[in-house]
Write a structure and sequence with these properties.
Helix content is 0%, strand content 49%. With 216 residues, it is mainly β. The strands form three sheets. Strands 12-2-14-15-1-13 form a six-stranded antiparallel β-sheet, with no helix packed on it. Strand 10 and strand 11 form a beta hairpin. It starts with 5 loop residues before the first strand and ends with a strand.
Length: 216
């Protein structure tokens, strides 16, 4: 059981978070209670390139933060599989409601045998959200900007996030985060993904919450 005024997460924190960081959660159960959606998209080998467009247009909704990474297989021999990992096509980026569509960096598939996009979307505003559209496109020519929609989906529909401040410095590699009155702050829905938005946005991260302490 977590100590009073703390929450705990499954894996060690990747980064240090000061009391300027905020935790974003959703007050609900099941999948509806997650503030983060992570989407894997496999890409076709016969495309020349791929990119991700993120549209946060809507009549009502919240700011979101988005990130896109890619992994790929670039070679196979009898004894070795050559892979690329952690190719960042879009760093964590804030996207306001009705902002101009955000475009990731292109991923060249010219010498790629197999590739997967890893698309992460977190709700970081506090207004009921109608959803954020994720559009994955593949290019059918090597140099001409002609794109085909490969996948299209909507994330975070119907969710409203709560924001809680980190109460004291949470060191990298620890699992305990100090939070004032976590139960009153609706952080008592366990085994859900939360989003920690750091003042240094690149140091933001997704965490699995495993425990919630009592309020002081």
């Amino acid at each position: 059981m977590a100590a009073v005024d703390t929450i705990e997460v499954l894996d060690n924190l990747q980064f240090e978070h000061l009391n300027t960081a905020t935790i974003h959660s959703v007050h609900d159960d099941g999948d509806a209670g997650e503030a983060v959606v992570t989407v894997p998209v496999m890409l076709p080998m016969n495309a020349s390139a791929a990119r991700v467009l993120i549209s946060n247009n809507g009549a009502t909704g919240s700011q979101v933060h988005a990130r896109v990474k890619a992994t790929a297989v670039t070679g196979i021999t009898a004894t070795t599989v050559t892979k690329t990992q952690n190719t960042e096509l879009l760093a964590w980026t804030a996207i306001a409601l009705n902002a101009v569509v955000v475009e990731s960096t292109e991923l060249s598939l010219a010498n790629v045998m197999e590739a997967m996009l890893h698309i992460d979307i977190a709700i970081t505003g506090t207004t009921a959200h109608l959803g954020t559209e994720i559009i994955v496109e593949v290019r059918k020519e090597a140099t001409v900007d002609e794109w085909t929609v490969w996948a299209r989906l909507t994330a975070l529909s119907g969710k409203t996030a709560f924001t809680t401040a980190v109460a004291d410095t949470a060191a990298a590699a620890q699992k305990v985060i100090d939070v004032a009155n976590p139960t009153a702050g609706n952080l008592n829905h366990l085994n859900k993904r939360l989003f920690i938005l750091d003042a240094t946005v690149a140091n933001s991260e997704i965490v699995w919450q495993t425990a919630c302490g009592a309020d002081a």
